[in-house]
Amino acid sequence: MVGCEYICKNWGRGVKMKKPITHDQMDGNRKSPVGTIHVFDPSPLNWLYILFNTMEEAVRADHKGKIIPSLAQSYRWVTDTIFELKLHKEVVYQNNEHFYSGYVRLNFHQLQRWIAPHPPGTWLNLSKETTLEILDNYTVRFHFPKPDGLAPAKMRAHHLANKLFWQTIGFGYAKLGSAEGHW
């Protein structure tokens, strides 16, 4: 295999690396490494670092902990049990899939399958009786069975992955049939 392999071992015990093959060795023109980097990170928080660097949510928390829009352009309570998100337009995933309300529906249904979709605890779960209404390509409404003042914060843990993620990795569903405990 052409390329380099990079393996980090726990507790800083060292790095093992095969010498990378560079473009200049292949065609004599460029001098940049090619290949794949594999990182081994046994940290119990590695899922969190990966998640925060590969997925977005409708809202996020700012540096003071205030919930602010992210993939959502805005959010509001329509009633005490209906939470509406207006989504940003022209958002594109890294694989060129265009984000719209269908991705909110896909991710909502995927995450609702789990007993405990959030390692920090089930308090982040949306109630199983929660339903989702699509108003148009960029407006969705979550209908809660009863008032849930934490709903905006829970949306911070409601990840909005692309279709490719759910078809291939899907937190373990694609490979193992369940995502429970596979973060």
Description of the structure:
The protein has 183 residues and is an alpha+beta fold. A four-stranded antiparallel beta sheet has the order 5-6-8-7, covered by helices on one side. A two-stranded antiparallel ribbon has the order 1-2. Strands 3-4 form a two-stranded antiparallel ribbon. Helices cover 22% and strands 19% of the residues. The longest helix is centred in the middle third of the chain and has 12 residues, at 101-112. The protein has two domains: 1-42, no CATH class; 58-176, Dipeptide-binding Protein, domain 1 (Alpha-Beta Complex).
Briefly characterize the structure.
22% of the residues lie in helices and 19% in strands. It is of the alpha+beta class and 183 residues long. The protein folds into two domains: 1-42, no CATH class; 58-176, Dipeptide-binding Protein, domain 1, CATH 3.90.76.10.
